[in-house]
Amino acid sequence: MLQTMRVVLGSLLAEVSGHEERTVKKIEPGMKLGRYVVESLVGAGAQGQVFFARQLNAAGGKACVIKVAPSLDVLEEAGRAMSLGSHVNVVQVLDAEVCDGVPFFAMEYADGTDLEGVLEAYREKGTRLPLDFIYTVLLHLATALHVAHYEATRGGKPLSLVHRDVKPANVLVTVWGYAKLCDFGISTRMEAQQTGMHMRGTPAYMSREHVYSKVVPSMDVYSLGVVAWEMIANRAFRPEAKTHAEHVDAILRGGGAVDGASGCACGTRRACRLMLA
User: Fold this and answer.
1) What does the pLDDT look like over 147-173, one tens digit per residue?
2) Over the Cα atoms of the chain, what is R_g?
3) Which CATH architecture has domain 112-275?
């Protein structure tokens, strides 16, 4: 049985040019940021820091998580994530503001663990994930992506948001039995086409469209297919690829052991093949 731990995922900082980077002042437990009070550090990286926090004007001090970032770009990204609303299969962004020169946003607190940790635990035990768990996670993630791709709106117009980094580390599995997609940090709208070859995202889960920056829903669907395959097969999709260059070569060659998704219903294998086509 999986050990429940408090994990929050949701780094939404995009590396958008044209904004001046700033030095974020040191954030410590007990410090107030707007209507939030910081409790403890969850993690830190080049794109900012994530803290457990509580909302001051909520009854009992509602638990939440805040992300402090070095750039105002985070507010734009948080705004796009907020446009997805309060869907049960998406980690909700509650608030975004600048307080005393510190840009930050607040996210819902969810009790659970990330899917990457679940996969690692089962691989260490040498056992496979229960099929009903796999089906539930896939259903919830597919629903989250459908909302981002086709249902969410801003100003009455479709948001048409492509995640671009669907992977186990960006999936939160809650104690209530829900899978939630998070980290829309490099997400972009479908019309935001780019030229050339870019590597924004995680190479192990990329498709050809991703490598060539064709912003289309199928790039997320392919990534979901890789996640599905890894849950079913209980191993990495492209284990031979170690470097970025090796991953790109495998992607362009169509590398990946698609036939390895055995041990489940033929309908699930067929769905996996379609996502990875």
Assistant:
1) 999 887 777 777 788 998 999 999 999
2) 19
3) Orthogonal Bundle (1.10)
